[in-house]
Amino acid sequence: MRPSGRKLNELRPVSIETDVTRHAEGSCLIRMGDTHVLCTASLEERVPPFLKNSGLGWVTAEYGMLPRATHSRMRREAKNGQSGRTQEIQRLIGRSLRAGLDRVALGERQITIDCDVIQADGGTRCAAITGGWVALRLAVNKLMKAGDVISDPLIDPIAAVSCGIYAGQPVLDLDYPEDSDAGVDGNFVITGSGKLVEVQMSAEGAAFTRAQMGELLDLADAGVSELVAAQKAATA
């Protein structure tokens, strides 16, 4: 039995509320159980210096956790003093979202996705990626409506979910009690068409088999399909 009482292949309750901030070109508040992440998309008519005059657009991301997102207060991270974990996660978010992007169609402009964890209960990077795509979708919709881009630069939705082996069983969408006690922990970033973008897996206890990895991938595929449906419903 999972601590939450969920089935092995059951996601936590998912909700995506859009247009939650006034000024951002795209925004949403994604809730995956007790993990809540605010995602905003900010458009700039410029690109990093290494892309200047290339005709290519860019999507990047920043990630952070509010001081009381967790059980005890954390100190705020200054940008130049970010932990290795924070830097790794924001690079992951950027890489993931660019995997579903036609950078030529976007044109020479940058969209920055800010992901701020309001409340954490496991799977924050996955929620940030899933919500980040929604914010990106909304920002691109405004570009298209204004006629600033001719063809849709978002070629495939991107979503992410965690899976792991808890109490000897493969489970979908780990919350904190499961994540902290899992024998195997993995994060899966997958496109709406079912292609893998990134897989992060590690054995926290005993090593895992290829067959077990296949079981976790099957769970992730099904979970991402549900998340993509939620993304499309939120942005329809």
From TrEMBL:
Q: Does the keyword Iron-sulfur apply?
A: no
Domain Exoribonuclease phosphorolytic residue range list: 10-139, 156-220
- InterPro entries the UniProt entry points to: ExoRNase_PH_dom1, ExoRNase_PH_dom2, ExoRNase_PH_dom2_sf, PNPase/RNase_PH_dom_sf, Ribosomal_Su5_D2-typ_SF, RNase_PH, RNase_PH_bac-type, RNase_PH_CS
Which EC class is this protein assigned?
Answer: transferase
Query: Its Enzyme Commission number?
Result: 2.7.7.56
What the entry lists under CDD domains is as follows: RNase_PH_bact (cd11362)
Q: Which reaction does it catalyse?
A: tRNA(n+1) + phosphate = tRNA(n) + a ribonucleoside 5'-diphosphate
**Could you tell me the keywords of this UniProt record?**
Nucleotidyltransferase, RNA-binding, rRNA processing, Transferase, tRNA processing, tRNA-binding
Under the subunit heading, UniProt states:
Homohexameric ring arranged as a trimer of dimers.
Q: Which family does it belong to?
A: Belongs to the RNase PH family.
Q: Which HAMAP family match?
A: RNase_PH
Mind telling me what this protein is named? Ribonuclease PH
Question: Its encoding gene is what?
Answer: rph
